[in-house]
Every structure is written in structure tokens, then in C-alpha cells.
Amino acid sequence: MAADLEQRFDAFVNGHRDRALRIAWRLLGGDAAAAEDVAQEAFVRAYRGLGSFRGEAELATWFHRILVNEVRRHQRWSGLRRAMHTGDREADTVPDPNSAARPDPALRRRIGAAIAALPRGQREAFVLVHLEGLTLVEAASVTGRAVGTMKSHLHRALESLRDRLADLAPEETR
Amino acid sequence: MSDRHREIDRDAELVRRIAEHYRPPEPAPAARAAFRARVDARIRRRAVQRWAAAVTASAAAALALALLRGSPPAPLAPPADAASDASLLALALPADSEEEPLPADYQAIEDLFLEGEGV
Predict the structure, then answer these.
(1) Which CATH architecture has domain A103-167?
(2) Maximum Cα interatomic distance, chain A, rounded to a whole number of Å
(3) What is the per-residue pLDDT across A117-166, written as a single tens digit (0 to 9) for each?
(4) What does the alpha-carbon distance between residue A65 and residue B78 come to, in Å, rounded to a whole number?
(5) Residue B34: enclosing H or E segment and its boundaries?
(6) Which of these CATH numbers, 2.60.120.10, 1.10.1740.10, 3.40.50.620, 3.30.70.260, describes A1-95?
(7) Displacement of CA A78 from its chain's centroid (Å)
């Protein structure tokens, strides 16, 4: 029974680790160390409840809810804002030297700052729906908000990012 | 193309570019293994902390119970070789002996009653 749970947890971590790290990283304005800490904590919390889940879709939504709550907790209690403005902690993560083209770090930081400047609800909606591909219903369930609220957050987030990152928009439409 | 369509296309392109540039570096295989090891270490640490907390709570509860009960109860009867009439009588008497003098003010009231009864 315990071995079965261990096996299941192993598969669960392998299946969700990269996405969990990416979601946390994106929600935390590109702070790799904080993202790793938050993702690990989310997996530890998930470990206890894993035995009661069967359906993979339900499990993913449940886990993403834990993850988003851990991000919120981290943002509430840590000096994240200070860290984001004073240092680049991306070196904490060892990148794969064989990975494909790497994005421009300066641009990545600029986008990170623009996303981090969004109010929490807008940031969560934008990252989960537009960047991570969750449906509105899934994102609403993960964040504990109404679908209508998520739509409104998405609209405002896009408006704000359009202003802050105007140079990223296609040339011909500006 | 209408303004609305242009706006939708522009937003879609903005989102695409943000998604393309705003992503963490791919972790190396060693980093993935290290991540899993750190999760396992946290789970083990949490289990030890829970166990320690449970032990501490049990010990604290046992100590509190002992303190509430006071010191271990004295034997009901003295050892046979020390038994005497006096000690048996002392054990039989209620804790608050009737012989204990009343406080001065209560004594004064009692005296008044006794005088009223013509004693």
C-alpha cells in the first residue's frame, strides 16, 4: 500500500514537476529560487492527499490549487518584492546546456516586472489562462474565483500589458 | 479587417511573444533529480517534526495531569508497626476539624447567638 503510494507519488512528481515550476516561476515574476521552494512545498502538501484522488484531471486542478495557494503564501510572507528589484536569482536554477534557444534575459526580466506589477488576480488569470493554457473554468477553480471575474481580470491584464510592453506588439498594428 | 479583429490579433501576438520570452530555463536532468530528492527530504523532515510534536504534546499532557493531581497519593493507612489509636483517630477525623477555631468576627457573632439563647 505504502509502496503503491510511493510509486504513484513518483509518477505524479515526474508528471507535474516542470509545469509546476514554470507556473510558480511565472507567478513569482521569474524568481527561480522562490519558484523551486514553492513547488517543493506544494508537492509535500500534495503527498498527504494524493491517496484520495483517482481522476487525473481532478488531481491536476487540485494540485494547481495547492500550488497557487503556496505562491500566495510566499508572496504574503517573504520579501519577494525586495528580492525582485535588487537581484537576479535565476542563477539558482541550473539550466540545461542542451536546451533550445534561450530567451533574452533582459526582455524576460522586463516581462517579469510587467507581470509582477499586475494585481494578483490579474496576474494569476493571465499566467494560468494565457500562458499555461488552462480553460477559464479550470483557472476559476484553481484560484477560487468566479468565471466572470476571471474574464474581467484577463481583459484588464491584457490592457495593462499592452501599455507596459507596447514594443512587443506587432509593428504594423502600432 | 475590422478594428476589433485587429485588436484580437494584436493581443494574440502579444500573448504569444510573452509566452515565448517569459519562461524559465529548461532544468538540467540533474536539477530534476535534485528537485525530487529535496521534496523527499522535506517529506521526511515533516514526518519527524510531526512525530516530535506528537511526543512533546503527549509528554506535556502527562505532566499537566500529574501536576493537577498533585503529588502521588499518600497511603490510606500508616504502616502497621506505626499504627496507634491517635493516628487512627486522626485518619478518621474530617480534614477540617470541628475543633478548628472560628475567625474572630464569626466567633463574635456566634457568641451573641449563644448569649441570646441564655447560655
Answers:
(1) Orthogonal Bundle (1.10)
(2) 61
(3) 999 999 999 999 999 999 999 999 999 999 999 999 999 999 999 999 98
(4) 68
(5) helix B29-69
(6) 1.10.1740.10
(7) 17
- pLDDT per residue as tens digits for the range B91-101: 444 444 444 55
Say if the Cβ atoms of B17 and A168 lie within 8 Å.
Answer: yes
Backbone angles phi, psi at B27, to 5 degrees: -70, 145
Q: Which residues between 103 and 122 in chain A have a beta carbon less than 8 angstroms from any beta carbon of chain B? A: 103-104, 107-108, 111-112, 115
Task: Supply the range of the domain harboring residue B85.
Answer: 3-116
Residue of B nearest to A155 (CA): B11
Q: Which residues contact B25 (CB under 8 A, 6 or more apart)?
A: A90, A93, A95, A96, A99, A102
Amino acid sitting at position A83 = A
In sequence order, the β-bridge partners of residue A95 are B27
Record the cell numbers describing residue A29, joined without a space: 515574476
A5 touches chain B (CB under 8 A): no
Q: Which residues of B touch A168 (CB under 8 A)?
A: 14, 17-18, 21
Look at chain A and count its residues. Answer: 174
CA distance A46 to B43: 10
The complex's ipTM works out to 0.78
From chain A, pick out residues whose CB is under 8 angstroms from the CB of B39: 13, 40, 43-44, 47
Query: For the whole model, what pTM was predicted?
Result: 0.69
Cβ distance A96 to B9 less than 8 Å, yes or no, reads no
